Amino acid sequence: MENVRTAGAYVLYNGFFVFQVGPTPSGKKLGIVRLGGHREQNEYPLDTAIREVKEEAAITVKPIDSLVTYYLDSWVGKPIKLTLNDNIKPILIKGNKDELFTVMYLALTDNEPKPSSESKGLIFLSLADVELICSRQVTFNEFLARKGLANINEDFDKDLVLEPFPQLVFLSKLLKQEPDSMKKFIECSKSR
User: Fold this and answer.
1) CA distances (Å), 43 to each of 1, 2, 38, 191, in order?
2) Distance separating alpha carbons of residues 72 and 21, to the nearest angstrom
3) How many CB atoms lie within 10 A of CB 89?
4) Nearest-CA neighbor of 128 among 101, 154, 106, 149?
5) DSSP string for residues in 112-131
6) Do β-strands 161-164 and 29-33 pair in parallel, antiparallel, or remain unpaired?
């Protein structure tokens, strides 16, 4: 996959999806962003995802082979199932011939994620949290009042609305479209 620009992972820790959280560039919302980042020269996308997760959340992950891989040409496109021969298949490949691709993997960790100097903070999302944040506006304070979990490096306005970035919105759809395989994945993280 030479045309991959970024790679990341949906990381599960004790049944919670781990994402970065921090102010958007405008400072008017708190973005919920996947763990991941830019590919370094000749790096395989899975290696990029593993490295970036370690850099952003100070954890080592165990990548999980996805039972299905989806392809999206854009974030608003209709997902198409792909058949890949990789040892560890990604859950998502997004992009098209006119732009570089982004790849998302599934991964587990036993290590408690902690925000690194690259992260403003980490947010831990249950299935209900994913659904809530992707279905209506929720402030960070509302999330915390509902016993939401987070580990924050920087002080920021907790009255700001949480904005789900595209990878979180896709995860929300995936949890509805592939409930059985995603529940198996989630149970794996709880039994570790």
Assistant:
1) 10, 9, 10, 32
2) 24
3) 20
4) 149
5) PP---TT-SEEEEE-HHHHH
6) parallel
Q: Which long-range contacts (CB under 8 A, 24 or more apart) does 66-74 make?
A: 66/90, 66/91, 66/105, 66/106, 67/178, 67/181, 68/178, 68/181, 69/93, 70/174, 72/170
Distance CA(79)–CA(138), nearest Å, equals: 27
What's the one-letter identity of residue 30?
A: L
- State how far the alpha carbon of 45 is from the alpha carbons of 4, 35, 73, 145, 148, in Å: 7, 13, 18, 37, 31
Query: Out of 3.40.605.10, 3.90.79.10, 3.50.50.60, 2.60.120.260, which CATH number does the structure's domain 4-190 have?
Result: 3.90.79.10
Query: What does the block give as tokens for 190?
Result: 């709880």
- pLDDT at position 16 over 80: yes
Per-residue pLDDT tens over the stretch 25-65: 999 999 999 999 999 988 999 999 999 999 999 999 999 99
Residues forming beta bridges with residue 31, ordered by sequence position: 22, 163
